[in-house]
Amino acid sequence: MSLSKISLRPLRNTVLVFGLRSSSAARNLPPTAAKQLSSPAEVGFFSYTRNWSRDKKYDLSQAPQKGDTPKDFLLRRLGHAYEVYPLIFLTSLWVVLFTFACYWSFDKVEIWLDRSKDDAPWAWERIRDKYWKMNTIVFDLDGRTHKRLEIMEVLQDEMLEAAKKRGTRQ
Which chain regions cross the lipid bilayer (predicted)? Predict the structure, then answer.
């Protein structure tokens, strides 16, 4: 008799049932053991419990361990772990600078978030009265990029009228 004649269906069903049973939803933690170790005669802290932290069969939100989360891992020993201070400072500085750069970038004229109008935000009709007020570069301490340019305004007005005569603008 060859192995090809043997049906593997019962074995497959058994493996499937066992797999479903073991990978079902996380269960609550079991109660503490009825029989506990007796504390020694010495003075001090003594408490023995099983560490359920790495057992995936149980709901681990009920038994968190110190250092299980990244926040706890980095911040739980700040009182004496001074080598972590520069990491926290640099991470905080990076988050602040990244947020500022995103805000600054989205406040420029090149970003088109409001699509309710047909004209782009850089169209001269929309930007004529506010182009000098918008963000340009971060390090413009004396405001050189925030001045009105009357010569450019006249030129842009003439170009807009010529485009309307040609029919390329409405």
Answer: 84-106
| pLDDT tens-digit readout, 37-76 | 777 777 777 776 777 666 777 776 666 667 777 777 777 7
Residue 58 in any domain: the answer is: yes
C-beta of residue 61 within 8 angstroms of C-beta of residue 26: no
Claim to verify: residue 99 and residue 133 sit in the same structural domain: no
Full residue range of the structural domain in which residue 60 is found: 53-106
- 70, 86, 106: which is the final residue of a domain? 106
d(CA 146, CA 132): 5
d(CA 12, CA 18): 10
> How many angstroms separate the CA atoms of 138 and 133, rounded?
13
